[in-house]
Amino acid sequence: MWGLVPLFWPLVKPAGAVEILAHRMVWSLAFVGLALLALRRWDWIRELVRSPRKLGLITVAATVISVNWGVYIWAVNNGRVVESSLGYFINPLVTIALGVLVLKERLRPAQWAAVGVGFTAVVVLAVGAGRPPWVSLTLAFSFALYGLVKKQVNIGGLESLAAETAVQFLPALAYLLWLGSQGSLAFGAHGAGHAALLAATGLVTAVPLICFGAAAIRVPLSTLGLLQYLAPVFQFLLGVVYFHEAMPAERWAGFSLVWLALTILSWDALRTARRSRAAVESAKAEAEAAAVGAGPVEAGPVEAGPVEAGPVEAGPVEAGPVGATAGGAGVGAGVIPPDVLSTPSAQPGR
Question: Does the pLDDT of residue 171 top 90, yes or no?
Answer without folding.
Answer: yes
